[in-house]
Amino acid sequence: MDAKRRRSKEGARLALVSEVVAVVGPAGVLVEVAPAAVTVLDRTPDELVGRSPAELVAEPDRSRLEAALALGRGGVRARPPDGRGRWIAVEIHPGAEAGADASEVVLVIKDVSELVEVEGRLQAAEARYRALTEDLPDVVFAADAQGLLTHLNPSFERQTGVAMADVLGSNVADLVQPDERPRAVAALDDLFGGVVTVARFEGRYQSVLLGTLAWFEVAVRLVRTEHGHVTGTAGVIRDVTARKEAEVQMAHRARHDGLTGLLNRGAIIEHLVAALAPPTSGCVAVHFLDLDGFKQVNDRLGHEAGDALLADVGGRLAGALRAGEVAGRVGGDEFVVVSVNQGPVDGAVDDAVDGAVGVVERLHAALTGNEHGVTASIGVATGSGGSGTSGSALLRSADEAMYRAKYERMKRSSLLIG
Predict the structure, then answer these.
(1) Domain count of the chain?
(2) CB atoms < 10 A from the CB of 287, how many?
(3) pLDDT per residue as tens digits for the range 140-187
(4) What is the C-alpha separation between 396 and 380, in angstroms, rounded?
(5) Half-sphere exposure (Cβ direction) of 119: Cα atoms closer than 13 Å
(6) Which of 223, 224, 230, 399 is the most buried (most CB within 10 A)?
(7) What average pLDDT does the segment 68-78 reach?
(8) Domain membership flag for residue 65
(9) Phi, psi angles (nearest 5°) of residue 123
(10) Number of helices (H) and strands (E), helices first, in the chain?
(11) Are residues 94 and 143 in the same domain?
(12) Do residues 167 and 88 both lie within one domain?
């Protein structure tokens, strides 16, 4: 095809496109420009043909366009020379790849003013977002649609001592310990599945600063476009280590005596209920101890000395426990040791008597040598798992046996087998 016919055919094609397609000839000047130049460049094709393509952009940007033209491919984003504040993008394609002669270069020129404006607004919004989150005590993060972290505010490094660069690109669920990740993944699945609007989960993270595992609470929301397309997630990570430690302490205080650290009355009864409930079998023995002479210590030396004695007794009992035994303080100077034998029920009464005597002797030995020479009256009651005996009834029977031992002024126990 001769040059005249080719130019005619290209001119017809260029007249149909809204973006500006221009052809740079072997001499390095524009030889064909689409009619859309009037709209995009505010210049007619006749005004541009024969000129250097560098004149398509303002003076400060011409060197960048000339460098790209020298390579024969690539592109630049620049302002046109009309001074109206618009932006254009110039894409450079080798002629052979764009349907022109191999000696030519094809330019595709688009008005990207609106795109640049939108990008500017996004950049400003991102700058405001970063400024707002920069000094927040909580960790603020963003992740892409695959759950990979793309942003963390500086609070992450301040709280963990871990560099953000070491974490960015990893999955949000990887922030918690391996054994806790299934729970995190399930929460995120519910979020993406529309089950919840906010996914919440807790987990532990290795804090370099603390040198231990710290607890974090994570709240995550989906990020959507104005058309509802999910582009990723954003959320907040809050250090809840102090709260978790307080919860552990509260749970411990709810089941333990504050003075001795032993189980309290409620926890002892819970333990008995579990030990006696079907299909449990075996013998359960309750050893009920009441300190002899405690009131005199309190009256003579004061409550502080009495408390110190109770704490000492609690420590002695805890130190005397063996496998299958727990100790508790169930009253002012009243203590309980529960023994659970998971062996066969046959011969339980004889075993209970022998075992109770052995435990009583061990408990008396543990109390020997305390500062005030206090001894204890001990009563024992036994029951078998699955027999229908209640924990409260067994504790009450042991209490009654203890009082009989006290009234008889004995230092050894009177056994009540129930």
Answers:
(1) 3
(2) 27
(3) 999 998 889 999 998 888 888 888 898 899 988 888 888 888 988 899
(4) 10
(5) 6
(6) 399
(7) 88
(8) yes
(9) -65, -40
(10) 13, 15
(11) no
(12) no
